Amino acid sequence: MNAALAVIGVFLLLAFYLGVRARQGKDMNLEQWTVAGRGFGAIFVFLLMAGEIYTTFTFLGGSGWAYGKGGPAFYIIAYGCLAYALSYWMLPKVWKYAKEHRLMSQSDFFAHKYKSPMLGVLVSLVGVVALIPYLVLQLKGLGIIVSEASYGKISPAAAIWLGVLAVTVYVMISGIHGSAWTAVVKDFMILAVAVFLGIYLPVHYYGGIRPMFEAVEKANPGFLTLPDQGMSVSWFISTVLLTALGFYMWPHTFGSVYSAKGANVFRKNAVLLPIYQLVLLFVLFVGFAAILQVPGLQGSDADLALLRLSIATFDPWFVGVIGAAGLLTAMVPGSMILMTSATLLAKNVYQVFSPSTTEERVRKLAVYLVPVIALVSLYFTFRGGETIVALLLMGYNLVTQLFPALFFSLFKNQFVTKYGAAAGIVAGVATVAYITLSGTGIGTLFPGLPQAVKDLNVGIVALAVNLVVTLAVSAFPPKFFRFTGEKNSPDVNLDVK
Amino acid sequence: MEDGQGVYVHLKPGEEMRMKGIRWLIVVPFLGMLGGIPFANRVKPYVLGMPFLLFWVVLWVVLTSLILWVVYRFDPEAREEEGK
Q: What's the total number of domains in chain A?
């Protein structure tokens, strides 16, 4: 066993220990398990939210994009910041409503606001379908990190099994409390590792940040700006806008909003998180430093840039520290995704069709669904090929389709009906599925359009379709749809008993 | 915006509405960051060692933080919860 592996092993055990221990002194009912009894203060919520943001995708993907794509990678810094600005207005409203009605999941929010449990089922299904590829991506990242950092001694498959086992066990035992405690260790590690690498590597290899950028620009002129076609200015703006709107639509991110103690938690976080996410700047620096030092990584291998450069530069024990930080960036979001999908399926799908189920049975069902979802994700992880990235983009485009229905529900005068919300989501999701699966873009559908329009992110098109359908269907009075078999019944009482 | 029942001893109703309007500042980061991209899409001048496009994005991240801090300082709902 080498030093790198020993360090990774120690951190895996530490994360596991903290995750399991987090349960102590808590009576694990559903509300404790999923939203920590709404008792988390600013620091825990801060770390949970940051924890879900700094995932394997940002750690490996951020440096990989800087390495492979250059200027377009700057979008990674831009969108989070705008999402936080939006969160200042949006999250306190969401939190207050969720607390008043004792909501547990994202789907509860839609079901309550629109007084339609079936809309909750729809939102749950969209959420779970979007979450599984996201989890698969974390697992693939985990496998790459551990196998690279162990200098190939541990196969990616073995690493993935170990990581999934640890996460599954502590999620089943501690729920969200486990994720919060591992998030503490992880954020400290990632902060230290990213800042150190982002400063040390440019200075060590180039003598500073500016000389590094000048060397990159000299070797490949225009690499540090947006190109005229493809990932152009209009691509950048539409992508940043789309991902900023979709940011809090991920079911696990939305759900962690409920764990806060008060609404001001989000206002304070919105002030601090933009600065905090500048850590990503250092991750990008690492990617740019790697361009001239470990050249030749093509396609998806660009994701290896950070690890390959680290291995070429540092002693094994420090490669182990980097690997451990990477491992934790996969485990924290992974645990939140597992818990959220399980809760959605148990509470917002199963319980809707079997309303007499007690809350305790729903919690048990959610706990037992955790290993099932883990196994499904493992299946896709080992089976899938290149399509994973396509699936991730599809996942982001999918969850963003929930934004219009959420946005309109936040106003006092709620003019969007449940039919409008459902039709909009279905239309948006169908557009995303069609565009993604058929591999078409705006350019192939409408070749005559100007380049700036062709470069728009296709998710924006789906969002526009969604918006039009939502508003158009809402213009019809609800009784217009009653012939579909729905009785003219009084609104179902959705409150948790 | 949503709840009209908040009663503030220190602010008259008209004043409270005006202060809530400060939340419109949240739109500024969107306009600044994204609206400036077509003009900021270049390498030179380097600022703080970064190519200009990257500097522009980082600048707006810092400005966003400052803007949200100002909003937080004057937002009556945030003040009320702080006072509890």
A: 1
